[in-house]
Amino acid sequence: MCARPANPELREKILKAASEIIEACGPDCVTMREVAEKIGYSPTTLYLYFRDKNAILQETVLNAFDSMNAACEMVMVGPRAIDKFRQYCRAYVRWGVTHPGHYTLMFQVPLDVEWDSAWTEANIGRLTRGRIIAMQLLGEALAEGDLREPTSLRAFNDAGWAALHGATSLSISRRLTVDIADPNLEQVVAVATRTADVLVNCLIAGSGA
Q1: Are 128 and 62 in contact (CB under 8 A)?
Q2: 3-state class of 6 per DSSP?
Q3: Domain's final residue, options 11, 26, 51
Q4: Is residue 156 part of a domain?
């Protein structure tokens, strides 16, 4: 158990440094020593605020989910639920492509394996908020007649999310822009969001509505 932090600003500074390292070279580069060097403190100081590296990553991943969900919910506008769902999907891939290190941390690290099931259970609301919102939007779109009722709304939502995640991951690795010589971030985001639009159209068409 860590001592109660005497300096909340330093705690936030530690998290900010870890986030910068994650975006610079990936989650695997985060160590107590690297974070300490980045903020100009000794590694011993970090242990007053976090029990170990995983504790820093746990806090970071929760903040990342909060950030992504806020970005997606902010753009959910439109007269119908399917319009909000489309905007949500576009914002999802845009956030992932512009935060590749954090996206990798969020979705490539097995939570119960690398961390612990108790932590996952305690924070399940923040970890799954995005998928719950997406399923709610699909349910509303179904009620509004823009989707035909699938055999399982949960399975339908999961299939859509899996496709969206695939598009985001392929965009991060530049696989979707392999035909563009040295694509810049703006081009990658444009291709990713266009792909998200196609995925939503396929979901609508596949539902038979």
Answers
A1: no
A2: coil
A3: 51
A4: yes
